[in-house]
Task: structure prediction
Amino acid sequence: MAGCERPGNWVGEWEGKAPVAAPPGADPLITDSLAKVKLSIKTDGSFRLVESTFDKEGIGSLGAKTGTLHIDRIMERPVGSLGPEGAKMAGDRQVVLNPDGTMNLTVLGGGTVVLQRASAQ
Result:
């Protein structure tokens, strides 16, 4: 994994739900779709993160219990090519492995989503 000495058990598929404030009358299916967070981490430290329906990719710097996901592509396009709005969606995400086997992911805006392991790779 990029930038780590003692990798934790990061590799695999992770899922969770971010809190989403639904406006009155919002379609629950759309709200649910916006709330879904999925993270896939491969053995080489590369990852794919889906949050608010946007597909983001990059390389993680992952240690024994904490790490940083460095987003460099959104919707398969380099972040630099997306202008100011794309830059707002990029940035690093912090991750922490919890003793109970879950992972905390700091999402855009500073909130935290608890991810459950969906499957190991």
Observations:
- The longest helix spans residues 28-35.
- The longest strand covers residues 54-62.
- The chain has one domain: 12-19+27-119.
- The CA atoms of residues 81 and 87 lie 9 Å apart.
